[in-house]
Amino acid sequence: MFRIGFIKFIFAFFCVFSSSAQIIEESELAVITREDWKANPPVMEIIPHKPQFITIHHTGMPQKPDLSIEKKLQALQQFSQKDSPMADGSIKKAWPDVPYHFYIATSGKIAEGRDINFQGDSNTDYDLNGHVLIVVEGDFNKEKLLPEQWESLKRLVSFISSEYDISRETISGHKDQAETTCPGSDLYSKLPLLKVEHPVKIGAERLFENEYFDLIRNKKIGVVTNHTGLLPNGEHIVDLLHQNPDTKLTMLFGPEHGIRGEEDTHVTDSKDEKTGLPVISLYGKTRKPTTEMLKEVDVLIFDIQDIGARYYTYIKTMLLVQEAAAENDIPFMVLDRPNAIGGIYVDGPVGKPGEPVTDIDMLPITHGMTVGELATMFNQEREKSGLPSADLQVIPMENYEREHWYDQTGLPWIKPSPNMLTLTTAAFYPATCLLEGTNLSEGRGTLQPFEFIAAPWIKPEELITQLQSYDLDGISYETTRITPQQMVDGIEIYPPKFMDEEIPAVEMSLTDRKNFKSVEAGIYILHALKKLYPEELEWRKPRLDGLLKTDKVRIALDAGKQPQEIIQTWQEDLKSFKKIRAQYLLY
Questions:
Q1: Is 157 helix (H, G, I), strand (E, B) or coil?
Q2: pLDDT digits over 342-356, tens only?
């Protein structure tokens, strides 16, 4: 074994790392050498390359903790260097050597495989030039990545990135390069954490630090959460609190879509299968916890990932729970999480301009705040207005920069609701959710909800021409067709518009999300539809006016006003909101 520090490899086509067995004192990365595991030399010529990318694989086979890493590498090399049968009955042609540059075993031990300065091999079709291949032992579509493997993977990636000047942004999974499920869902979900040198530490992680844990120690706890209440290691806040001997979890509350995020209609009360605890739905008959529901609760915790748009219902649930905590003298804790679409862009009509921001209705469509910042603002604005305010404690994040989008935080993406499949969906949501106030489809019922403008009667080419005439930043358009379905990504959603009909559509793509102004884009889209299809377009007035918190936009569109005129009408109100908002920013 050696410890990798600054290593100068001596390269030849049949290099066996003979010069790398020396111990380099300054590094902590222990690696088992080819000499240690008694590797054979390559059996044919291998292609040199310059390491430029880091690509993660899994073995796709069950973990075998009882077998030594040396035996595993020997078996892998024997399989690799000859024609070998595959599980599907096909024959893999011989490779020169083991296909991967590094192997991480179940113990967390790291072994070097093929010389990093030569291309690896794969059964799938992708250009391996420049790819440093790391394989982790296990089938992570069925198994969980072990903590020891994760720690070793982080250290190895850090070394490779630094030593070979490879940006962490190049880190990808095998499935990003070829048609495969490798490296498995569990490992793949953690890859974003590798792309950032200092990933965001969310409030749910910090809750278990001494500074904050003392606030809940030996307390009866109620938690408002759903499937997004995960820590980056995959553990759920409910399970951690339930298992901890110093806390007593007594009650669970679920928002819209339920505590598991699989419902797309009003949700009923239930029981959590894992803990046996009662789950009170806050998106059914009850929207705010009652005194009776809170009688066995000493502290209320909110931990849900929001996306950053006013009409996404989780922040309304948070405010109602906050009100209940205030009315029942129960401390309220918000475990802060990032604003998924960034904490900079603030835009849209302000529902009640000039009034204290004591309710969701006083927010613009994109508010540029985290849930912790919103809770702080609501609480203090309510106190100033003589309304009940809670004993609020926000558990802040570390390493969070508000200009960062979710995929820049190092946190794994978990779709916050059935129709919020990707961050791109979230980016378009403030714009295209407005189509819910019309008789057009926004793409619900597809794998790209909120990324389409669709209806049987639109003509995509002419709609694109009109949209392009606005010269909006950060967006492009293509013609397509969609067939909305009720089953999306394994979940039955509320029946979408034009279900099971194939209809023409315009598909939107982000080209520059930093400069894309989603709220403004929404107004331009509505204007284009009104201009091109005045007879076919129908307003669903209560829904549209409710989303915008005003009827002025709809009335202006009907009057033939231009989009920029409409957008200008809320700028003064927005300035006033931004002044209030600035007082409560935590980052």
A1: helix
A2: 999 999 999 888 889
